[in-house]
Structure formats: C-alpha cells, structure tokens
Design a protein that fits this description.
The complex is a heterodimer. Chain A is α+β, with helices and mostly antiparallel strands. Chain A has a domain of about 50 residues. Chain A contains 7 helices and 30 strands. A 5-stranded antiparallel sheet of chain A has the order 15-16-17-18-30. Chain A has a 4-stranded antiparallel sheet with strand order 2-29-28-27, with no helix packed on it. In chain A, strand 13 and strand 14 form a beta hairpin. Chain A is globular, with a radius of gyration of 27 Å. Chain B is of the alpha+beta class. A 4-stranded antiparallel sheet of chain B has the order 2-29-28-27. A 4-stranded antiparallel sheet of chain B has the order 3-4-5-6, with no helix packed on it. Chain B has a 4-stranded antiparallel sheet with strand order 7-8-9-10, covered by helices on one side. In chain B, helix 1 crosses helix 2 and helix 9 runs antiparallel to helix 10. Chain B is globular and about 90 Å long. About 10% of the residues of chain B have low confidence. Classes of the chains: A alpha+beta, B alpha+beta. Chains A and B meet through strand 1, helix 2 and helix 4 of A and strand 1, helix 4 and helix 7 of B. Strand 1 of chain A pairs antiparallel with strand 1 of chain B, so a sheet runs across the interface.
C-alpha cells in the first residue's frame, strides 16, 4: 500500500518573523475562481463609475492678459513653459507648474497673431497685425525658476518690419527658417530683415501655416479662399492645393505619422488628410457645434485637441470619428488657441475671456507619483473596462458627458438638420432614375477640387 | 526518450487546456478584416498566457495531491483507516477522530471556504465552532431549540443557523446578531460589517492603492442602508427553514422552508432578493452549484429543479428518479451532478446535456463531491467513496469506511484543501482521511487556510467590492459579456400560409382508409370520415388566423382608447360593440 495525504506544517506556510512579508501562494486554476467573467464585469462596471467620479480635468486658470488670447507656443526644450500672445500686443511666458507669468515681451503695437519657438528653444518669434516680425531670446531655466518677478520684461533681439500684416508664423522643425502667413507666405531667416523666399497662389490671405515635423522643407498653409496648400521649399512654386467648401482655420501635422495632417474647419468638423492623397479625407472628426478654431496634436500622435468657437475644448483620437472628451466651464468663452503639453499629460486652452486654462489630458488620471501597485491596479481596471466596454451598462456610463445646455441644444439641432438632409437626399434618390444621383461619402463631400 | 517527450507534451497540452477556459473563437466567417486581425492577436495572446501559466505550474504549485494505491492483491476499498494511520505522519493522524456526543445529535456540519474552521450543529440546539488546525473549540453554545442546519457566511466570523421557527445569524463569539424574522431587521447586519470596513478604509486612504476602489462603495452602502430603513415594510419571513446555503460570490443566503418556499436574502443589505413557491412540497434537499450559483432542489416527486433568484419559475426541471430524492451534490467544475433516490439508486448526471452518465446501485442519505472530484455517499453507518480513476467520468469504488453500528450518518462534507472527510451523525461527528480528495495548492487570494486576521479583513472588503448582482446567476456563467444571438422569427407570408393549408388538405384527402368490417365501410361513412379529417387538418390554420385578427382588433381598440380621455373611453367601447 502506498499512501500520501496532504499535510501542511504551519512553519512552511507562514512567515518566520513578524518583520517578514506574509507568504503568498498562487494557484491560477480556473476552477478555484468561479464566475470569473461576472466578477470581471462587476469590476469593469465599478471602474467605469469610479472614472466618472474622479473625472476632474480642470486644474486652473492663468490670468494676466488684458485682451483675448490669440496664439500660444510651447517651448520644445522646456516642459513647464508656455508662451501666449494676446490681442493688445502682450506676449507672456507662463510657468505651468506655478501658473504664474514668468516673463513679459512688450513691443507689439497691434494684436499678436502668431508665436513660435525655434526647435532648440532659444529664440521666440512673434508676428502681429502691426506688420512686424520680432525675435526674442527665450529666458533660461534659471530665470524661469527665480522669484524675481519685479522687472521681468525682455527686449526683442530683432524687429523686422514688412509690407503687410501677419496672421500666423511657424518655425521649421530642423533648421533656422521660419514661415509667416499673411497676404502671402514668406520664408524668413533669423539673421535677415527680409524674407528669403515668398510663395503666392491665389489672391486671398493665408491664415495659418505649419511645417512638417518629418520633412523640414514641407509646409502646409490654409487660406481665406477655403484652400489648404502644401509647399516645398526646395521648389520655386507651391506643390499642391485642395479647395474645400468652407475655410480651414488651422492645421496640425501628426508628429508620429508625418505624412498625415488634420485640418480644423469652419464647418464644425476636423478632417484628417494624407498629404499624398488629397482627394479624400482619411477621417472626419465630428462633434463640435461651431467653427473649430485651433488644433494641436499630442506628441504621441494618437490624439489631438481642438478648441472651438462653441466655447468647448475637445479631445479626439487620431482615427476616431467622435471626441473622446469634452471640456467646458461656465466662464470659458470662445476658444482661440489650444496646445497639448510636450509630455501629453496636459492641455492648455486660451480663450476670449483673457485666460489660459490648464486641463488634464485624461480627465480621471491620478496626478503625482503613482506607486507600482497603484499603477498595476489602474492598468488592470483599464483592461477590464476595455474588455467590457461594449456592454450596455458600461458603455452608457463611459460614454456619458454632461453638456452645457446651449451646446446640447445646438448638437440636437445639428443632428436634426443632418438627418433631414440625409432623408431628403434619400427621397430624391428614390424618386429619380436609378444611378442618376450618387451619394458622395462624407469624407469627399466637403472637398471641391484638388489642384496640382 | 522520444516517447517520453511525447508523453510530456500530452501532459502539457492537458494543462494548457485547463487555462484556456474553453475553445477559441471561430474567426472563419468574420467579414470585418480589421476586427478579425484584432481578434486573432487576442486569441494568440490567450494561448500564450495559458501556455505560460501551464509552464510555471511546476514552481507555483509545489505541493502534490494525496493518493492511495494498492499493491498486489490489495484493494483500495479494503484498506482501513487504521492502516492508513500507520503510514501517514502524525500531523495527518490528528484528522482521524470520533467525537461522541450522544445526547444532542444528530449533527450537521459546515466548513469555511478555506477549510480552517468547522461549524457543527446538533439537532437539540448544540452549536460549536472548531478551529480545525489546532483542534481547539472556538466557541460552543446551546440555543435550546431545534437546529436543522448551519452555514458559514463569507468567513468564520459569522454563521447562520436554521432553528425551530426562524433562521438566526450568530457571530464567532456566539452572540446572536439577527433573527431573520422581518426584512428591516437585517439592516443592522451591515452595521456589524461596517466598523471593520471603515477601519480598513482609513488605513487605505492614508497610503494604499485600493482606496480608490473602496470609497464609493462605502457611500453606496450607507445610502442603501438609509433608504432601506426608511422604505421596507413588506413582511417577508423565512419561516421554519430546513436547509441553508450561502452563495459566497453574491452574498446571498438561500433557504428552503417547511412549506417549500425558496428564499434568497442579501446579507449585506438585508434585502429579500427572491421569494418563490416551489410548489413541489416539503423538501430538505438543497444544494448550490458552486460553478454558477444556481440552487438545486430535490423533490419528493423525483424531480430536481434549479433556481436563480431573478425568476419565479425554475431554470431546469428534470425527472431524475422514480421515487423521492434523498440527496444531491455538485462537482466543483459544475459539469457533474450526483443524485440519489429512495429507490436505492445513485445517478451521475452530465449537466451540459442533462443526461445521465452512470447509474450506481446503493442508497445514499447524503452525497458530497470533493475538490478533486471524489464522491462520498453515506447511508446508515457506512461511508463509501467513489472515484473517477480513469478520468472518463466512470465512477467506481475507491474507499469505504464503516462507523460503529447504530450510528446514523446525516451529513458528509469534504474539508476544502485537505484530504479529510467530515461526517456528521447521530452520535456526534467524526473525521476520516481520504487521500487524494483535496486541492493540494491553495491560492492566498482565494482561500487561505493560514489567513491572519488582517488578511481576513482585507479579503472581506475586496469580496464586498466584487459582490456580484443576483442577475449574474445563470446556467452558463461564461455567457456574461457575450452577444445574445437574436433569432429573427420570420412571419410566413400569406401565400406561404395558403400553400401550407393546401398541402395539409391534400394529405388529408389522400389518406388511405383501412378496410373495415361490414357496415362501417360504406361509401357515405368513408366520405364523412374524410370530410372530418380535412376539417381537422384545416382547423389549426383557421384558428391561428382568427387569433391574429382578434389580436389586431384588440390592438386597434386599445390604440383608440388610450388616445381618448378616461371619461370618454366607455363610449368608444359601446360604439365598437
């Protein structure tokens, strides 16, 4: 006879001294944990509810400007700094951590229309409606950290006066050229008081300009004549142009997929394009109820933030048709500029009410040092939430966002209008000869033509 | 060498299969390429993690399960407890004993989930909690009332008893916390959990990560508590309960009383979740299927019914025996059920197909499955243990044990995570060694036999947070989170229905009649018969048509009525009539 029975001595299964950690034994046999799926579902549901409870995205407002904020620029070499320019000609450098003005750059006579910082983070370029381009030295870290705020105004390194008012400026990602937009597109060098190159296509004012992050010589502009134009600095003439039904207010290139860019359009939508294939948008991002004023990509390239004339800020997935998040406060007015912070954790918006506002990019994220166990727990909850996101109960909680009443109404109205249009189109189709009316896809509908 | 490797592979495959939790999804018919790709990646990931889990088993699961093997002409079922005692260590021999308490019996037993504590209840009111590791008596009380059953709640701190008129809840110190007379009274139960929870909360909020998850549920608890004490005046009593069972994942206490009413009570909120008349008379055969939380009842008519707290009719009603059912038990993996009837048969059922797999002869007053799938059957003073030695669900004799003559066994219960079988009988309780019955490796986070009080407190909070709603009790618990296939019931068109009717009439016309004896075979008689047949064939179609017409008329009528103000509705009816 051979016999063995389970026999556990207490010494083997408990800790030796009270200072030791408790001994842990694992057995992952599924039969020990019954109803795993139901448990996971309950956890997902709880996680979704908790996310709602902890969703407090607004961190604080930064006030100081005396007029509407027109433009912002982030400093690529200094995480805490953000520049903002307002309609009264005031430019300020803010410290995001303390939410205070670190430095002021007085000089512009009219509104500041464009701000940009060179890639090395040493030079700030500003342009405005007073027909000047000004170059400034960016104060160093020591200056930013010092508490001496009594005399913190800087003097411009150079002032270049030109023929026309400017609407936007952007610096090359790798190089020392910058482009201004106005009556035409001018390419400038840091050291010369006149543009090194000038592009012109059509007669209308160019309102925004952005350099490609991957290919330093390529830039995209949008103009009042509803066009989006691509330029290559190595060629003497513009490369391509697409004309849409409404004007594009701003453009942002995807930093991780530099052939793609997203255009913030006047018709409440954003359009993602592949620069090589402009006859069709890759994705249409709908949700805003008024013109989208500004757009900025997260450094990860997976998300972008938009600010709109409807007084809200939204965050979209780079390939998502609808927004992931909407931010609004009672006091925030028309949003003119938005920026994603360089570490992808914050979003900064500048609006008509002279304030910059700081938001969390993920509304319910826990800020500060997260312990490893906490991190693991968050990851687990995220995973179960993702797994059960399609179940009605979880979906309802995750999707719900409270909207201010005017926006809720406007969204409803917009939906009704679009639905009515669709129905009309369908009726027209039903009552005409088959094939005579072709419904164009949403991705193509707003494009009039592509010009080469 | 090669053969050996192959053998190892097979073993590995078996282990992997355990962790795969069912078949992979079939992606063949999927048209969405993107989704297909994503799912394929997901499936690959599942496979990999299952393989990894199987591989690390060697290190994670160091203990091996017990066994009993016969040598030569020996038979395992002839081996006595004495001879086992001679072979095993002194630690294990402590698990063989008889406690003789002749006055207060017969006794019934229950173990906590980790197998550390045992509650014993004598019919005549004797309640005892025993620490099974040290074999110390934690508490002993005499309630001076009939006690029919005892059940631990989520840990050893609380246990419920079925007494003469009501079920009661006691704590470890023997203090009566609740008499489950009225619904409102149980609200206090939460407050008895409450201090412990709050204490933990405070600690959590200072440093630990899980404060995140814990806080809101507490506020929820509070709110529910308040609303409950304001609201409920419905008098719902358990009554004289015969059997009690605790559903650990749902915190539900299920009871069946003398008049055959099944009740579910939530022990955290005190809410009566379900209250159903079984309609099959008095029974004291009740068992929870640990796999899905479904409660099974065995009735005197020979049927077994399975219940969930959200439906007043049973999920399953199966006729298992021609006579009354004396006991039933569930395999921990939820696929097997054993029932025994008074007609001296024990049947083993496959719960996936609801088919009988094996019929064994023999009477069983009580049945119980162990964690490793051994089946213990007790009758009179004799215990038989059956094992599925071949792995093909073919149960055969494994061990047997005879108690002193005259003892009447009332309850058999395997102790979790140990090779021990507890026996409650008319003269006290006993315990014998059954090698190979218990799970050798425990998981500290699921059930820890060496739990400290701190760990117990943590576990209480976590299990309360993961408390499942009663809706999650269903026959197939893996259905949670899957898509329900909507079967579109297509209405047959008018032509189709006409054609069907025609066909039915044709077949009726074509029926050949038998040659009948003289007088009955007249042409006129045959004609009438045929006419009748045709009539009968048409009838269901015509009836259905009538029904539909009636339905549509009713719908119309109600439509009109709801539009009218209430005072005018009667005129509408008159007009229609």
């Amino acid at each position: 006879m051979k016999v063995k029975v389970i026999s556990r001595s207490t010494d083997e299964f408990t800790r030796e001294r009270s200072q030791d950690l408790q001994r842990v034994f694992r057995n992952f046999d599924p039969s020990l944990r019954t109803q795993e799926k139901a448990t996971e579902y309950v956890r997902a549901l709880n996680a979704a509810k908790l996310d709602k409870i902890f969703a407090r995205p607004f961190i604080g407002a930064m006030d100081g400007h005396r007029d509407a904020i027109n433009c912002m620029a982030k400093n690529p070499s200094y995480l805490k700094g953000i520049f903002s320019g307002s309609n009264d000609g005031d430019i300020r450098l803010w410290d995001i951590a303390t939410r205070r003005t670190v430095c002021q750059f007085p000089g512009h006579q009219g509104a500041v229309q464009g701000l940009t910082v060179s890639t090395d983070g040493s030079t700030l370029v500003s342009c405005g409606s007073d027909c000047t381009v000004r170059l400034w030295n960016v104060p160093g870290d020591s200056f930013a950290d010092s508490d001496n705020l009594a005399d913190n105004s800087a003097k411009p390194v150079a002032v270049y006066v030109w023929k026309n008012a400017f609407r936007a400026v952007d610096h090359q990602w790798d190089g020392d050229l910058f482009a201004t937009a106005g009556a035409q597109v001018d390419i400038w060098n840091h050291n010369r008081s006149q543009p090194v190159n000038t592009f012109d296509w059509g007669t209308d004012t160019t309102i925004s300009v952005r350099f490609n992050p991957g290919e330093p010589n390529v830039l995209a502009t949008s103009a009042n004549d509803r066009s989006i134009t691509l330029y290559d600095l190595r060629m003497s003439s513009p490369a391509r142009k697409v004309i849409m039904r409404t004007k594009t207010n701003s453009i942002a290139w995807n930093p991780m997929e530099p052939m793609n860019f997203t255009a913030a359009n006047e018709d409440c939508n954003c359009y993602s394009y592949d620069a090589r294939k402009l006859d069709e948008a890759k994705c249409v991002h709908k949700d805003h109820v008024s013109a989208v004023m500004d757009i900025d990509f997260s450094p990860t390239g997976r998300e972008f933030v938009t600010g709109s004339y409807d007084r809200t800020v939204r965050i979209f997935q780079y390939n998502g048709g609808h927004s992931r998040e909407i931010y609004h406060t009672k006091r925030m007015q028309r949003v003119f500029c938005v920026k994603y912070s360089c570490d992808a954790t914050y979003v900064i918006s500048g609006s008509d009410d002279t304030n910059l506002r700081l938001w969390k990019a993920k509304a319910s994220e826990q800020l500060g040092v997260v312990l490893p166990r906490e991190k693991k727990k968050h990851e687990y909850l995220e995973a179960v939430k993702n797994r059960y996101k399609h179940l009605p109960e979880v979906k309802r909680i995750v999707r719900h966002r409270h909207l201010p009443k005017p926006i809720y109404r406007a969204a409803n109205l917009r939906r009704t209008m679009i639905e009515a249009e669709r129905r009309k189109e369908q009726r027209r189709k039903d009552h005409s000869a088959p094939g005579s009316i072709v419904t164009e896809s949403v991705r193509k509908r707003r494009i009039i033509k592509e010009v080469e | 060498m090669g053969a050996k490797e192959e053998h190892g592979d097979d073993e590995m495959d078996l282990k992997v299969k355990k962790y795969l939790r069912g078949e992979a999804a079939n992606l063949e018919g999927l048209k969405d390429k993107k989704l297909k790709g994503q799912l394929a990646v997901r499936e690959e990931l599942y496979g990999k993690s299952a393989k990894a889990a199987a591989k690390i088993e060697k290190w994670l699961l160091p203990s091996e399960s017990g066994f009993l093997e016969a040598e030569g002409i020996e038979k395992t079922w002839r081996i006595k407890q004495d001879s086992i005692a001679n072979e095993v260590g002194i630690l294990s021999t402590r698990n063989q004993y008889d406690i003789v308490l002749p006055e207060l019996g017969p006794y019934t037993l229950d173990f906590t989930q980790n197998g550390r504590y045992m509650a014993a209840a004598g019919r005549k009111g004797h309640l005892a909690i025993v620490d099974m590791k040290t074999l110390n008596l934690t508490k002993e009380i005499q309630v001076r009332e009939t006690v029919r059953d005892v059940a631990f709640l989520h840990n050893e701190l609380f246990f419920a008893t079925a007494q003469k008129k009501y079920p009661y809840i006691y704590n470890r110190d023997g203090t009566e916390l609740h008499c489950l007379k009225l619904v409102q009274l149980l609200c206090v139960l939460v407050s008895s959990f409450y201090p412990a929870i709050v204490q933990i909360m405070h600690r959590h909020s200072k440093c630990a990560p899980d404060s995140l998850t814990a806080l809101p549920s507490i506020s929820l608890l509070e709110i529910r508590l308040r609303s409950n004490s304001v609201k409920g005046f419905t008098v719902q009593e358990h009554g004289a309960v015969l059997r009690l069972q605790f559903l650990k994942n749902h915190f539900l206490l299920a009871s069946i009383n003398k008049s055959g009413q099944l009740r579910y009570q939530d022990v955290t909120m005190g809410e009566m979740v379900g209250n159903f008349r079984t309609g099959s008379g008095r029974t004291d055969v009740m068992q929870v299927n640990p796999y899905n939380g479904v409660v099974a009842l065995g009735h005197s008519s020979g049927t077994v019914t399975m219940w969930k707290p959200t439906s007043p009719i049973p999920l399953v009603k199966m006729l298992c025996h021609p006579g009354p059912i004396s006991s039933l038990a569930f395999h921990p993996n939820g696929q097997l059920m054993a029932t025994s009837g008074r007609e001296k048969k024990i049947k083993i059922w496959d719960l996936r197909k609801f088919e009988v797999i094996q019929t064994l002869s023999g009477h069983a007053k009580t049945l119980n499955f162990s964690q490793k799938g051994l089946l213990a059957a007790g009758t009179g003073s004799f215990v038989q243990i059956l094992a599925d030695s071949s792995g093909s669900q073919n149960y055969s004799r494994y061990m047997s044990h005879a108690m002193a003559k005259g003892y009447q066994i009332g309850k058999l219960l395997f102790r979790p995570y140990e090779d021990v079988l507890g026996i409650g009988h008319s003269m006290g309780w006993s315990s014998i060694l059954v090698p190979g019955s218990g799970e050798p490796n425990f998981d500290s986070w699921v059930a820890n036999p060496f739990e400290t009080s701190k760990q117990r407190r943590e576990k209480e909070v976590h299990s309360l947070l993961d408390k499942l709603p009663p809706e999650t009790i269903m026959l197939d618990p893996t259905k949670v989170g899957t898509v329900r296939q909507v079967k579109k019931k297509e209405k047959p068109t008018k032509e189709e229905r006409e054609a069907e009717l025609e066909a039915a009439v044709e077949t009726a016309k074509d029926t050949e009649f038998k040659k009948k004896t003289k007088g009955r075979n007249k042409p006129s008689k045959r004609a009438t018969k045929r006419r009748e047949l045709i009539h009968r064939a048409k009838r269901p179609f015509l009836e259905q048509r009538m029904e539909e017409k009636e339905m549509s008329r009713k719908k119309q009528k109600t439509g009109v009525v709801t539009e009218m103000p209430k005072s005018l509705q009667r005129f509408v009816r008159q007009k229609a009539g």
